[in-house]
Amino acid sequence: MKGASSTHKGLKKFYPLLNASNAGLHNADAADAVYCLGGSLNPRKAKGKILVCLRGLGMHQEKGYEAARVGAAGLILTNTEDYGIQIDADDCPVPYSHLTFSDTKLLFEYLNSSNSPVATITAGRTEFGVKPAPYMADFSARGPNTITPGILKPDIIAPGVRIIAAFSEAEELYQQKAPYNILDGTSMSCPHVAGIVGLLKSIYPHWSPSAIKSALMTTATPFDYGAGHVRPNRAMDPGLVYDMNDHDYLNFLCAIDYDRNMIKRFSQHSYDCPDSVSVADLNYPTISIPSFSGNATIVRRVTNVGQPGRYVVRVREPVGISIAVEPKTLVFAEKGQELEYKLMFGAKMSSLPKDQYSFGWIMWSEGKHHVRSTIVVEMNHKAFNFT
After folding, report:
1. Domain contains 336
2. DSSP-based three-state secondary structure for 245
3. Does residue 233 sit in the same domain as residue 376?
4. What is the pLDDT of residues 106-126, one digit of tens each?
């Protein structure tokens, strides 16, 4: 079996394999022992053995230090079905390996069928081209956007799982000090994106924040939610961007019912809201249609940030949805030119999806650049008498 690990030195021989549920202290909660929580294991039972612990109810580092406290030879962390293929190469004071759910099942089959199960843990090594990658971490936010359904969220994803990062030696993590640590979360993905934004700003100092954001989103690796996984090199040359100015943002505030006094806090001048404005009017690089009941029209503007060119549209329609685009070709005569297009959505009554959400995309390309925008339609099944 092959698991994730940051173990530098592996075990030299095989050791007895022990389910942590059988290594608990007599006065400890049985569930605590299963998860190898701090103070739950009996050294006399666990010493010199490779412990099999269950993921959950506590940090992985806590399980590792509990294994070290009781003198275990190593630690194998196992996944439940909910965690599936997500495995983490944690820093651990004893040789360590984290198994996927499928390998977890095989391990327990072996444990339950052998009278004297044994195992060893080899030293970890860096692997490239691991699949599936990238994928969304179990703790990552996913759509829909419940606050403003007309804006698809998240915008972009970036590496944020098991990232080697600088760490303050003024802080102790389980009695350990180190200049580097393996960390997860937005705290890791945000610096990736911020660094890319900084590089783009150095190349294009006059680009607006929305232009940079568009470059990141329309060149990302596709995902069902948001624009996808960031690709820095492609973002450096997006071809077209969905740019926005102050009025775009102020109109958006009007659309979500900000009054004059509230809007004044965001604008240096008094601003009068248009008579008719909706969230869908925001020139966003993705398109989200909430509570679709049969037809909708979306207008977008794209600005040429490359060479003059003739961009032709391609559309992957969401299941059960028809999309007409006008015009089907955008001809840019010069850099900086802005053109508008319209998308008209209709329902295919013979193939309405049973799922609540239906996904597609629109892409503009002149052969070199591929400017892709995710489309998400939330089906209003009540409007179609769909049960």
Report:
1. yes
2. coil
3. yes
4. 999 999 999 999 999 999 888
